[in-house]
Amino acid sequence: MRVLILGGDGYLGWPTAMDFAAAGHEIMVADNYMRRHIAEATDSDALIGAPSLSERAAIFEAVTGKAITVRIADLSNPEEMFDLVREMRPDTIVHYAEQPSAPYSMRGFREARETFQNNLDVTFNCIWAVKDHAPEAHIIKLGTMGEYGTPNIDIEEGWIEIEHKGRKDTFLYPRAAGSLYHTTKVLDTDLLWFYVRTHGLRVTDLMQGPVYGISTDEADLDPRLCPNFHYDDIFGTVVNRFLVQAVAGVPLTVYGGGGQTRGYLNLRDTLQCVRLAAENSAKPGELRIFNQLTETFTVNELAERVQQAGNQLGLNVEIKSIANPRKEKEEHYYNPVHSGLKDLGLQPHYMTDAVLGAMLERILENRDRIVADRIMPRVRWS
Ligand code: USQ
Question: Which residues form the signal peptide (predicted)?
Fold first, then answer.
């Protein structure tokens, strides 16, 4: 397959590109380095510095013999998006090219507007590029479990049948996002659904929970192929943050009561899910939605697991609740259905002590690079 990966420099984009290339697909990655610029501007650099995208591709080719074509392009500019799609004529487009940080989107007007404009513009341009220049292409869009929020009923995979006054119909599952970033993903889904209905596009929307991990088959071939591993309050997801805090000797920052429950998955499973979706395409005129997670945990459970794994390495990990900088429920029902990707063949990598221990060892090798000022939350929702 010819696969175009939008946002190919990101925490998920780069390892996805390597995974598809290693599997024998023809890969082009595009990125405008927005995350790198925001990380620099907010003093949120990743634990291990990443070479440029072209350098990463050259290292990957030297190690594996497989090529990844790189384009530095601003995908919020329609002409740049259309040029890429006309040049490559992809069978599949994996769309990660969004500002991915909830805290950044809540920092102020400028950051909210930047998130809103980038995320919606890239999705809109991607839709039009496919509609006009590659109508058979399958769009795989990274959505988020945060689109649904935390409703007091089971979360279905994207769609829900509703019976009202004796009549039934199927609708997109109700959404109630908890940050402006998550809200842009809700709007993306609505845009995609409109163009699927009216123009018969084929789309898979992956509602993904928070990802953790640093190791993939290809990333482990050379330390310079490492994914961008963030532990700061802007780009760091909670498990990655807790593991760095355990190594830095900072008490794990549980926000508020710690009963917040989310659906988590290992980075290796993100790669599996995206490839399974690509190799089993949605049909023309179908908006297929999967919930992309493998296990659910409360924040308190995550902290306890990291504490246990850290103590096994002699780290003496403490846990300390701090005032919650976000507006979110700290105690709630949470039961998302997540059978669709398993039905396609997903083999989960669960969060075991061994997985957490291996991550801690990798962080220990880089402990001198940890900057303590990046750990405490710097953005409040209100
Ligand atoms: N949390 C803590 N302490 C911390 C950091 C986070 O208690 O130090 C809590 C948060 O309050 C939240 C939960 O942990 O309840 C998850 O937070 P997160 O920062 O790992 O995840 P989130 O901000 O929701 O965003 C991340 C990714 C985003 C993706 C999303 C999936 O950055 O791109 O869409 O996970 S989901 O959360 O399912 O919407």
Answer: none
377 Cα nearest atom in ligand 1: 8
Instruction: Compute CA distances 320 → 245, 252, 253, 309, whole Å.
Output: 11, 6, 6, 17
Residue to mutate, 186, 291, 299, 320, ligand 1, most ligand atoms under 8 Å from C-beta: 299
Q: Whose CA is nearest to atom 27 of ligand 1?
A: 210
Residues with CB under 6 A from ligand 1: 100-102, 144-146, 182, 208-210, 237-238, 241, 253-255, 260, 262, 299, 326, 328
Structure tokens at 231: 């532990």
Residue whose entry in the numeric block shows the structure tokens 């990966």: 5
Catalytically active residues are 144, 181, 185
| Predicted local confidence at residue 143, as pLDDT | 98
pLDDT for the residue numbered 295? 98
State how beta strands 261-266 and 252-255 pair.
unpaired
- Cα 155 from Cα 107, distance rounded (Å): 29
Ligand 1 center to residue 78 CA distance, Å? 31
Q: Per-residue b/e over 166-193, b at no fewer than 16 CB within 10 Å?
A: eeeeeebbebebbbbbbbbbbbbbebbb
The rounded Å distance from CA 29 to ligand 1 centre is 26
Q: Burial, 24: exposed, middle or buried (Cβ in 10 Å; 0-12, 13-18, 19+)?
A: exposed
* Domain range list for the chain: 2-224+267-293+335-347
pLDDT at 54: 98
* Residues of the chain under the 70 pLDDT cut: none
Q: What is the pLDDT of residue 209?
A: 98
Alpha helices in 174-288 (DSSP H): 180-199, 238-248, 267-279
CA of 206 to the centre of ligand 1 (A): 17
Interface confidence, given as ipTM, is 0.98
217: left (phi over 0), alpha (psi -120 to 50) or beta: alpha
pLDDT attached to residue 215: 98
Check residue 218 and give its pLDDT.
98
